[in-house]
Amino acid sequence: TERTLILVKPDGVARGLSGEVLARIERKGYVLEGVELVNATAEQLAAHYAEHEGKPFYQPLVDFMSSGPVLAVIASGDGVIAGFRSLAGTTDPTTAAPGTIRGDLGRDWGEKVQKNIVHGSDSVESAEREIAIWFPGR
Ligand code: ATP
After folding, report:
1. d(Cα 58, Cα 63) in Å, to the nearest integer?
2. What is the mean pLDDT of residues 74-100?
3. How far apart are CA 74 and CA 127, in angstroms?
4. From CA 60, how far away is CA 54, in angstroms rounded?
5. How far does residue 96's CA lie from ligand 1's centre (Å)?
6. Which residue minimizes the CA distance to atom 10 of ligand 1?
7. What is the DSSP string of 35-83?
């Protein structure tokens, strides 16, 4: 069955939203296969965000992701990759649809990075690549 890599980003952990995010994943019917609170290393973030290297928001993004612990999650279930991205909502929390994690729980905090609570893999290839970054050996 399909797997995806989800991160509750430092803003979500700091605001006490980890349980809310996990609850939404479970209520949707997906299975939690791994949950771990981690302080992201520079190596993990460089690998995770390699596709954004060179973009104006890259360094602020890496700094933000290093600002506190993240909750790394493996969730499984048929269609979980697209399903979680649907639960998360679009990237910008200001306009993400109500009912989604970002739409219900996020906002613009006036900073260079969009603090948008969660990350979710966007394809089978990125899910397997990202699981190897956050859960080596899984
Ligand atoms: P994620 O990959 O975290 O699920 P996403 O796929 O919606 O989010 P990406 O385009 O992969 O968004 O961007 C990764 C992250 O970089 C975003 O979640 C956000 O925190 C930040 N980001 C993306 N675009 C911008 C932007 N234009 N300005 C500031 N921050 C941004």
Report:
1. 9
2. 98
3. 9
4. 11
5. 13
6. 91
7. EEEE---HHHHHHHTGGGTTSTTHHHHHHHHTSS-EEEEEEESTTHHHH
State whether the beta carbon of 120 lies less than 6 angstroms from ligand 1. Answer: yes
- 39 labelled ligand-binding: no
Fold of 3-134: Alpha-Beta Plaits (3.30.70)
> First vs last Cα of the chain: how many Å apart?
14
Nearest-CA residue for ligand 1 atom 2 is 119
Instruction: Indicate if ipTM > 0.85.
Output: yes
List pLDDT tens digits, range 43-54: 999 999 999 999
**pTM of the complete model:** 0.96
User: Among this protein's residues, is 52 annotated catalytic?
Assistant: no
